[in-house]
TrEMBL record:
Gene3D superfamilies: NAD(P)-binding Rossmann-like Domain. InterPro entries: NAD(P)-bd_dom_sf, Sc_DH/Rdtase_CS, SDR_fam, SDR_oxidoreductase. The keyword Chloroplast does not apply. Pfam families: adh_short (PF00106). Belongs to the short-chain dehydrogenases/reductases (SDR) family. This is NAD(P)-dependent dehydrogenase (Short-subunit alcohol dehydrogenase family). Keywords: Oxidoreductase. CDD domains: 17beta-HSD-like_SDR_c. The lineage of its organism: Bacteria, Pseudomonadati, Bacteroidota, Cytophagia, Cytophagales. It comes from the Bacteria. It comes from Algoriphagus yeomjeoni.
């Protein structure tokens, strides 16, 4: 039975990933900062008799990651698949977001993933096989205010993943990047809430998420893609997920940097008209 470790498993995409692997017959170590909040996961594991165990691990802590990883490796042997899913999605303009929040986003979204990768790679390298899957976002390929900080952390994780793929491929270790679009998660619903800001982009992005979530894409769609990649022999690095993911990426690629910036500086009505024209979505509310 192959062994999978999933971070950020208490809710949303991480929860669905842990269940998908468990239902597929993998031994799953579902890690999270606060296991007491994982009631849905716990109840599902018990009801379905899944081979999933819950572990308290804070990816922001060197000590916590080392302790849990050492414990799991000692008792169960090497991890075959690591899924770095833990992340936070604070949003706000560059001017208005406190520096402490910038650091918090990077600590979880980037350094947390790096800690976990460094913990599993030696054993994977020794056994000449393994799979590392990093869940980033469409925001790891394009950036729009007020998600500059979140995007920066995801851009950074994509860069690390691309470099790591070059390093570990000779040792039989695959690296995959999963790039969800707007998914029906707590994080997405937090973005759809309008935060007071001197910049109009805050309300516009909230309205875009609000409109998109009227026809929500479920988190289990991302879980299915993660499982599909893990079970494949693919060496393809990037995998957009969701009906809007690839269109968003292609939309950005169709513009120069200056066109992209100017598009987000349009007067209010012109901006909403452009969204409706490009995506058939009325983001006004």
């Amino acid at each position: 039975m192959k062994k999978v470790l999933v971070t950020g498993s208490s809710r949303g995409i991480g929860l669905e990933i842990a269940l998908a692997f468990g239902r597929a017959g993998y031994q799953v170590f579902a890690t999270m900062r606060t296991p007491s909040k994982a009631t849905t996961l716990s109840e599902t594991i018990k009801a379905e008799g899944l081979p999933v165990s819950i572990h308290k691990m804070n990816v922001n802590s060197d000590i916590s990651v080392k302790a849990i990883m050492d414990e799991i490796l000692l008792e169960n042997g090497p991890i075959d698949i690591l899924v770095n899913n833990a992340g936070i999605g604070l949003n706000g303009s560059i001017e208005e977001m406190p520096l402490s929040e910038f650091k918090a986003v990077f600590e979880t979204n980037l350094f947390g993933a790096v800690r976990c990768m460094k913990a599993v790679i030696p054993a994977m390298r020794e056994q000449q096989s393994g799979c590392i899957i990093n869940v980033t976002s469409v925001s790891g390929r394009l950036t729009s205010s007020p998600l500059g900080c979140y995007s920066a952390s995801k851009f950074a994780l994509e860069a690390i993943s691309e470099a790591l793929a070059q390093e570990v491929k000779p040792f039989g270790i695959r690296v995959g990047i999963i790039e969800p679009g707007i998914i029906d998660t707590d994080m997405a619903h937090e973005i759809e809430e309008v935060n007071p800001s001197i910049y109009p982009s805050s309300k516009r992005m909230a309205d875009l998420f609000f409109a998109s979530l009227k026809n929500p894409t479920p988190a289990n769609l991302v879980a299915e893609k993660v499982l599909e990649y893990a079970e494949s022999d693919s060496w393809i690095l990037r995998h957009p997920v969701g009906p809007d993911a690839l269109p968003f990426i292609q939309w950005r690629q169709s513009m120069t940097d200056e066109e992209w910036i100017n598009r987000h500086c349009l007067p209010e009505e012109e901006w909403y008209d452009a969204v409706e024209r490009d995506f058939g979505m009325d983001a006004r509310r």
